[in-house]
Amino acid sequence: MLSTLLQETAQDATALAEGESVEKTLSIIELITTGGTAGIVIISLLFVLLVVALYIYFERILAIKEASKKDANFMNQIKDYVSNGKIDSAQNLCAQKNTPVSRLISKGISRIGKPLEDINTAIENAGRLEIYSLEKNVSVLATISGAAPMIGFLGTVIGMILSIFEIANAGGSIDIKTLADGLYTAMTTTVGGLIVGIVAYIAYNHLVVKTDKVVYQMEAHSLEFLDLLNEPM
């Protein structure tokens, strides 16, 4: 009876110990710090790329928001000034607005009196400069979205190589815990790379959509201004 009770108690203690080992939580920081120098370097690089991507996104989104401000009366005022020959007043209005649209119209106004083709060319050239300014550093986001997953996968390959190296030097006695820690760390770099890549990819596409809207506004107002010049005075 006593012997049976002791056996059951020992079995319960063993099951409890096994249950505690199964329920052991994994700390991401521990996985990173135990992954060796290569793992720490790669995770640090991914973190830097994430910070750069977020900085570019928020800096560009604020710049695009400022550039996309609309003034419903702007073109009406430009029409009145141009129709009445008040070129200086029209230029002053464009300078006050200081938006991509107003700068394009200002470029067109400065060419009034020249052939319409020359005015159109001047506006197109100014438009290219404005688009370049709006897309500043956006290509870096595209690069990060593609490079981050590959950097993460590089960390995984390095981790796998180190794990295989440990197996090769184990001399027939494989420490499962050491092997598992190496594999966890290797996969952590892939997860980190994917997270950074996804964030950069979403940010890039969102900026592209926002920029396209501003470009559409510039094209629409430029055509409206050219139509104004075509009207008989």
From TrEMBL:
Query: Which keywords annotate this record?
Result: Cell membrane, Membrane, Protein transport, Transmembrane, Transmembrane helix, Transport
Cell location: Cell membrane; Membrane
Q: Where is this protein chiefly located?
A: membrane
Q: How does it sit in the membrane?
A: Multi-pass membrane protein
Where do the TM regions start and end?
36-58, 138-162, 182-204
A Gene Ontology biological process in which this protein takes part is: protein import
An example Pfam family from this entry, by short name, is MotA_ExbB
Q: Name one GO cellular component term.
A: plasma membrane
Tell me where in this chain the MotA/TolQ/ExbB proton channel domain is found. 97-219
Family assignment from sequence similarity: Belongs to the exbB/tolQ family.
What is the protein's given name? Outer membrane transport energization protein ExbB
Q: Which organism is it from?
A: Bizionia paragorgiae
